[in-house]
Amino acid sequence: MKVLVIQQRYGIGDMLIFLPYLKAIAEKNNVKISLLAKKTSRSSDLFIGENFLDEIIYLDSTNDGISGFFKLSTLIKKRKFDKVYIFNGSIRYKLLAIFAGIKNIYQYPLFTSKDIIFQTAKVFTETHVGKVISTEPHLLLKSEDVSNAKKNFNINKQTKNIILGISASGPTKRWDVENYIKLASQLNDYKKCRFFVAAGKNDIEIVNNIKSSKISAFCITMEKLSISSILPIIKSCDLYIGNDTGFMHMSAALGIKSIGIFVDSPAYSYGGYSKNIIPIVPEGETVKSTTHDTLGKDNISLDEVFKNAKKILD
Question: Interhelix angle for 91-99 vs 69-77, to 10°?
Answer without folding.
Answer: 50
